[in-house]
């Protein structure tokens, strides 16, 4: 039995991870569950999976949960929540946003296998996360595009001989075909209505602006050690080809499946083996259309901004990620409009001072500073 820590267990990635455990109970045991504050769902999960430790970020919620579970289950918060990952062999980091950074750090310091959905931690601290990997841990990408590349490269993060470039696919999001003038009036509901994937609100909004694709370009750079010039993005609205690896001799290897995150999550659990249970298998007996088109960089300027931050390196991706998290939150609480998400991030980037954080603590401080600047930008735009 392999023991699992499911961090962000109440979210989209967390629930799908637990679904895989449910389908193969003889192989995995859940020793740790953690979430921010959704104790109703946590309680159901505790009753079903009997973990040893449950982490709750919100202290009041932790207190409440403590009063509702058996005394044999440790309910922890703060640093103990992060340390809880060491009670498992495999950690799935499905926490939303930069808050996942300490979990990524702790899992790798402990030399564990980390199934990384929480792309923000890698983007904000790429070089440091890679350095932590030298402590014996293992990083398996859960993001579908990066899992596709990982699979196309033989379940490896090392680019193979004759490698030419990565081609990351993008669904294009809900506004792919919306005229520029209509983007001014899109609503929160419109932005959350992703055409092919069902995900948490933050990443859904990121998919609508294409910041998600920009973050994924940076994620690919760190995961596979590929230069930005050798990473392309192509729009593929059907979301069946999850990404591709192109070779110098003209060959392209792609990974195809229905949009179902349980497949990439299962790789993080079983790799180098594969699950016996199919998730997202395609029906080749039916007609299938695969289309590809260029990204409209005028309506979706976020992608170019992310390339720029990625190429700057150092603390720039952290700064951009923090600004984006602040902007998305402001959009989701109706303080700013959809177009202003990009504006907040672009304006916040203008005050980025070149530098390279030397420790995770410094990354956390950089993230904090960027949030202060981005919050001011939100206030300026909200009152304009
Ligand atoms: P959700 O919003 O659905 O879930 C987020 C989870 O994180 C919830 O369990 C939430 O708890 C928990 N959480 C938030 N803050 C903290 C914290 N400080 N400490 C502990 N737990 C916390 O997000 P998703 O599952 O959609 O996304 C999670 C990550 O995976 C993101 O980084 C996203 O980019 C990435 N990802 C997601 C994909 C998807 O299909 N959903 C695809 C590819 C990547 P609570 O419920 O209590 O608020
Ligand atoms: Mg993705």
What would you say this structure looks like, in words?
By secondary structure, the chain is α/β, with parallel strands linked by helices. The protein has three domains: 2-141, Rossmann fold (3-Layer(aba) Sandwich), CATH 3.40.50.720; 157-258 and 281-311, no CATH class; 313-384, Rna Polymerase Sigma Factor, Chain: A, CATH 1.10.1740. It contains 16 helices and eleven strands. The chain has helices at residues 12-23, 39-49, 59-66, 79-83, 101-109, 119-124, 126-132, 144-152, 188-192, 201-209, 211-224, 262-270, 302-312, 316-332, 339-350, 360-383, and strands spanning 2-7, 28-35, 53-56, 74-76, 90-93, 113-116, 138-141, 163-170, 231-235, 241-247, 252-256. The chain has a seven-stranded parallel β-sheet with strand order 4-3-2-1-5-6-7, with helices on both faces. Strands 9-8-10-11 form a four-stranded mixed β-sheet, with helices on one face. Helix 10 (201-209) packs across helix 14 (316-332), helix 14 (316-332) packs antiparallel against helix 15 (339-350) and helix 15 (339-350) crosses helix 16 (360-383). The radius of gyration is 20 Å and the shape is globular. The model has no long low-confidence stretch (mean pLDDT 97). The structure holds NADPH dihydro-nicotinamide-adenine-dinucleotide phosphate and magnesium ion. Magnesium ion binds next to helix 8.
